[in-house]
Amino acid sequence: MLRRPGGRRSTVAALVGAAAVGLTGCTSPEPGEQQPAESRPGAPQPDAEPALTDDAAGAEWPDEVRATVETEPVPHGGDAADDPAVWVNPTDPAASAVIGTDKQGGLLVYDLDGQQLQYLPVGEVNNVDVRTAGDRALVVTGNRTDDSIGVYELDPDTRQLRDVAAGRLAPGLEVYGSCLYSSAETGRLFAFVTSKSGRVVQFELVEDGSGRVGGEPVRSFDLDSQIEGCVADDELGHLYVGEEDVGIWRYDAEPDAGDQRTAVAEVSRSGPLVADVEGLTIAAGPDGTGYLIASSQGDDSYAVYRRDGGNEFVTSFRVVDGPDVDGAEDTDGLVAETAPLGPDFPAGVLVVQDGENDDGNQNFKLVPLDRLLAG
Ligand code: CA
Ligand code: CA
Ligand code: CA
Ligand code: CA
Ligand code: CA
Ligand code: CA
Ligand code: CA
């Protein structure tokens, strides 16, 4: 069932937000203890609402959207494509790039028309993320072939990746998922690496003075079951982790923060979050507003939560078949980029992995974000 936001949402949002704040900083709540939003229909309707973002306040989110572009299929058959990232070209946004993983073989770079620009066969890379460090675009992936963190620099002119890791960067666990955190508070850059065991390692990435990137683990903590997808909110200092059969957790992303956490959402058979929780991404708006979007893999949908406040549930949507591009099913990774990316993606792009491409190996679908957020 897909729900649209309405007056009730904000009421529920306020209530769940208060509950979430109450849980922060004490014992780790199990997601099952969090009151589901749908159990609060009789709650009073306040006149004054906490301010939402301008687009959210009056927006009608669609239940369904269509991709306008799909990438070329990844090189390997079967379950191979996994996770995308978007690099924003600062001088020519329409010439930005999508970086994707083929978890059976390597990294791929595509242009915004979906044309493959590069295939770098570096191993079983699963998740990928990108940040700008100084004036360099760093692409970081978790490589399951040798349980390492791969670091690549994207050349802004050629949009080609080259390995800049200072040797094998070992987080010291069996690698599964990964994401980057560029701290607005300190300027330090970290990779979070997740493992099927439930362990998270935070690994600081440091340029070694010769242009290569090294680093070391600075923090670790454990969840109770399999985790993969993660995303960090650089501006607000949050780390979100998807515990695949359980729900979404929020942690403080700073390395000295410990393991206190807040339950953001729990999985349920009736949705809006149906196991597995897979990819997580942040569609960043101004001043800390925006949305956290999760792949609800079990029902081929995407669950949207507020980025700010208590991460209240907003809506769900699907990416369905369009005239030219098929819809997305069984999505693993996804990424939202809200920077304008030229005339085809004037409000940015949502890129989702498609587990069932209709005309070849798995690939990635590109949805113009104005189709979702402008309403
Ligand atoms: Ca898959
Ligand atoms: Ca990613
Ligand atoms: Ca997974
Ligand atoms: Ca899965
Ligand atoms: Ca995955
Ligand atoms: Ca499809
Ligand atoms: Ca297709």
Report on the architecture of this protein:
- Strand 8 (136-143) and strand 9 form a beta hairpin.
- The strands form 6 sheets. This protein has a 5-stranded mixed sheet with strand order 1-22-21-20-19, with no helix packed on it.
- 7% of the residues lie in helices and 41% in strands.
- It is mostly beta strands and 375 residues long.
- It has 3 helices and 25 strands.
- Mean pLDDT is 88; it is low at 1-58.
- It has one domain: Neuraminidase, CATH 2.120.10.
- One calcium ion binds next to loops.
Strand and helix layout:
Blueprint: H1 7-23, H2 54-58, E1 64-66, E2 69-70, E3 81-87, E4 97-102, E5 106-110, E6 116-120, E7 125-133, E8 136-143, E9 148-154, E10 161-163, E11 178-182, E12 189-194, E13 199-207, E14 213-222, E15 227-233, E16 238-243, E17 247-252, E18 261-266, E19 277-284, E20 290-296, E21 301-306, E22 313-320, E23 334-337, E24 349-354, E25 363-368, H3 370-373
Parallel strand pairs: 1-22
Antiparallel strand pairs: 2-25, 3-4, 4-5, 5-6, 7-8, 8-9, 9-10, 11-12, 12-13, 13-14, 15-16, 16-17, 17-18, 19-20, 20-21, 21-22, 23-24, 24-25
